[in-house]
Amino acid sequence: MRLLVVEDDRDLNRQLVGALEQAGYAVDKAFDGEEGFFLGETEPYDAVVLDLGLPGRDGISVLSEWRKIGRKMPVLILTARDRWNDKVRGFDSGADDYVAKPFHMEEILARLRALVRRSAGLASSELACGPVRLDTKAGRVLVEGNPIKVTSHEFRLLSYLMHHTGRVISRSELVEHLYDQDFDRDSNTIEVFVGRLRKKLGVDIIQTIRGLGYLVVEPGSTPPAA
Ligand code: CA
After folding, report:
1. How many angstroms separate the alpha carbon of residue 136 from the centre of ligand 1?
2. Concatenated DSSP letters for 67-108?
């Protein structure tokens, strides 16, 4: 999962990015409205944290323009406490949720998990496929109830695939959702990571669809004709 943080307060931006990276997300950051708008317009994020008071271009204008051009990613806005009209304007401009400043980082993390989950059409924070369980809250992977040790990168890969069970995901889509902007991206490494993950899981839930990408399905089911 790849997120964008748009916040002009440098300390707060750093804290947010640090906490989100720690929670296993790939994170891009912007410090003003113009840069934030551009990133959200051009990059495919799984969710965005958007401050409303930004230099250059305010958060409401950024958000309404994204929605106008059809960008649908979930957006969590950061509002000043007691500014109820900010919340109303935010929701009317296309926000999916808000957190008032000052906030607890745990609340941001929980709300983002819920937004990402809901935009994938899922009801629970624990994803399951056959004997594999992925706990997005604890950041754990279990196979038949036994915890499996995975790297943060492998976790991100499995989490993205399991949020989109039953849909073929191309390697380029994975690259776009697993790495931040500054990462030296190479879609060949995806194959290596998928291979490692398969070995660790020991069950066949990630199928390779020749020429198209990967598909997470219950073990034993047949892949769709390509
Ligand atoms: Ca601000």
Report:
1. 29
2. HHTT----EEEEEETT-HHHHHHHHHTT-SEEEEES--HHHH
